[in-house]
Amino acid sequence: MANENLHKAKEAKNDEFYTQLSDVAEELRHYKEHFKGKVVFCNCDDPSWSAFWRYFHLNFAHLGLKKLIATHYDREQPTYKMEYTRGDDNNIEVGIKTPLEGNGDFRNQECLDLLDECDVVVTNPPFSCYSSDTEVMTNHGWKLIKDVDISKDIIMSLNPENKQIEMVKAVDFISSPVNGKLYHFHNQNMDFCVTGKHRMYAYHKLSNSNGPIPFVNAEDVKKTYLLPLKGFSWTGKKKESSYLPETTQLEQYSRKEITVPKKQMPIKDWLEFFGFWLADGCWRNHINTYGKRDYTIQIKQSKKNESYVLDLIQRIGFTASISRKNDGNNNYCIYSKQLWEYLSQFGRSADKYIPREYLELDIELLKCLFKGYLNGDGSKCADGHYHLSSVSKTLIDNIQELILKIYGMITQVRMTERKHSYDDKFGICYDINVTFERNTEFSKYGVADKVPYNDNVYCLTLERNHIMLVRHNGVIGWCGNCFREYVAQLMKYDKKFVIIGNKNAITYKEFFPLLKDNKAWIGYSTPSEFGTPEGTTKKINGLCRWFTNLDIKKRHEKLILWKNYTPEEFPKYDNYDAINVDKVSNIPCDYCESWMVTEDEFKAFPEGEWEVTRTEEKEGEKRLFIIPAAGTEFRKLLHEHAAGYREKIEKEISKNMQKNIFIDNSKTGDLQDRYHRGVLGVPITFFNCFSPEQFRIVGNEYSLALDKGRGYVHGKRMYSRIFIQKIL
């Protein structure tokens, strides 16, 4: 019977990877006292295969449970709940099975009612992700989502409040294996391949398109739901001028090397010229009869546009010679080493691109760039739409981004094969057809195909907005990213929990405050292998952790600190008042919140009321870092960080310093300048051994809004850090 149930689970739910019983047992053996007399709820956990149900059922009497509940989730098959109170613990099929009206989603009301009934939730929550061939738009252009480096790449996102396009940091990278089916939504305006739980950016109907942006699970999207295609806005950087770098060249007659100074040009004129050159220009790599490169920039354009071309070249401070051809076209040649050196970096026909610094400019400047490109390469068709084409995939992607930012609309790139104008050979061209006055604001999702899939799926957690621009099979669109709803729901219902999650959850904007405020913490073990319906195992390479808010012994075990602080080993951050610690085991024992006094100043302090935490020599003077002694009233203020504690302690220090008749009090300075915060930046692995009785969490890079998004030491970007302070 058990094998039959497992077979049914495999048929109906083969896209999941299951937590193994050995991992569940290894972690939960530390929580025995928390389960006695309690109702345990394993939601989204089918009892026919769940290791959680099996563990609690087999150990029901041993743990002293009051009741065990599990709900089965399935989008297509009938779902149910299973309840067990007593009977035969060894037979995991014993229990009361009751059909559910919904699909077992943890957000459904009947599941919320069960959540309200329970005391402790223990499960491996669901996830949502994209297929491995999905791309995402970053500040470095399009990247496969699996190749995104969240320490360097910034993601193009959509603000849900005002539809403003923004570049947003990702705070987490998610990777999980799937062996089953993904939901594939595809038509001429969209192409998404996602897990059933993925949150889609979709409106139910036109009437709510101006309200709050809704998200719908992929498996719940109806064919009439709508994806927005236009109405987006962009705010970029303003700039007045553009410059060509300084260079050297041979003087025309003397042939002596001279310096050509940096050339300043009006930014709008330069961008228009640059766009025009991208469309119809090239740089020649010709060597003349003297064996020297002739540094020629050439533009081929119709004779009827001669006045426009000459005026454009003149506006950026150059002149051109004209070679008039019999085919109705002119060749315009600009002889300038300075211009040649700058433009040659942007490649030849198949490699051309727009630099990222230009794509980040404001709309008015982007319009100048796009105007030049349209004048060079755009053709307006009889029905009013424009046809844009390039043999450079990168350049056409850049043009697609320009249209999105200028006109606020999604366009698609199509690939065709035709004869190239520059070599008369057949090859791939990339086209965009766009109507700037397009009235189509939405596209219906239609019915998703369910496609077989056996690979990792990926997603990102954005710092805000939770909508990002993705591309699949060459089609772009706005789509959701991973949310942290599950834990938020547990906190809302004030439930105790033991759950599995991605190790980077400690950096999530939604989850980090729980760790900081001592409302959740990391468990004991690290599940690294998960079972599949086929009976094999899948390694997760240590990406998962247990998270809980049950008061386990681990969180009361203090770290043994033995190392002493030295400024050489623990340098200060360039952009934050803290020191950097590369290893948790090396946290210095003597670096803490304190006040600096000189050795002479300290002689007037009453004995036994102050402690010296560390000393240093500076400019031939011995300095002491002091705190109130243990057991004193001032130490209690410091320990509790009571309101006004610093002012009260500094007032007492000042009073003691003034007792010393040998000290010139006018030179003691403001005691606020003597205060040292004692903050340390430590690796995120610190949470594995964090005791709230030993340290307090100050914040992380995101909550503290550090300049440049990370801590820097001597100009070098550090890995992600948690900033802590020793409790005294």
Topology of this structure?
Elements: H1 2-12, E1 18-19, H2 21-28, H3 32-35, E2 39-42, H4 51-58, H5 60-63, E3 67-71, E4 80-84, E5 96-99, H6 109-117, E6 120-123, E7 135-138, E8 141-144, E9 154-158, E10 164-187, E11 190-194, E12 199-201, E13 215-217, E14 226-228, E15 233-234, E16 241-244, E17 247-250, E18 257-260, E19 263-266, H7 267-280, E20 281-284, E21 296-302, H8 306-315, E22 321-324, E23 329-335, H9 337-343, H10 356-359, H11 363-377, E24 379-380, E25 386-390, H12 393-407, E26 413-419, E27 426-434, E28 442-444, E29 449-462, E30 467-472, E31 475-480, H13 485-492, E32 496-502, H14 512-516, E33 521-522, E34 529-531, E35 537-539, E36 544-548, E37 579-580, E38 594-598, H15 599-602, E39 610-618, E40 621-628, H16 633-640, H17 645-657, E41 675-676, E42 679-683, E43 695-700, E44 712-713, E45 716-717, E46 721-726
Parallel strand pairs: 2-3, 2-6, 6-32, 10-15, 37-42
Antiparallel strand pairs: 1-34, 3-4, 4-5, 7-8, 7-30, 9-10, 10-11, 10-29, 12-13, 14-28, 16-19, 17-18, 20-21, 21-23, 22-23, 24-25, 25-27, 26-27, 30-31, 32-36, 33-36, 34-35, 38-40, 38-41, 39-40, 42-46, 43-46, 44-45
What are the main properties of this structure?
single chain, alpha+beta, eight-stranded mixed beta sheet, five-stranded mixed beta sheet
Indicate the percent of residues in helices: 10-25%
Residue share in β-strands: 25-35%
Count of helices? 17
Distance between the termini: 59 Å
Q: Given the helix and strand composition, which structural class is it?
A: alpha+beta
Task: Tell me, rounded to a whole number, the average pLDDT.
Answer: 85
| Main sheet summary | 8 strands, mixed
**Can you tell me the residue ranges where pLDDT is under 50 for at least 5 consecutive residues?**
1-16, 207-213
Shape: flat
Strand order of the largest sheet: 5-4-3-2-6-32-36-33
The whole-angstrom Rg is 33 Å
Name the quaternary structure. single chain
DSSP strand count: 46
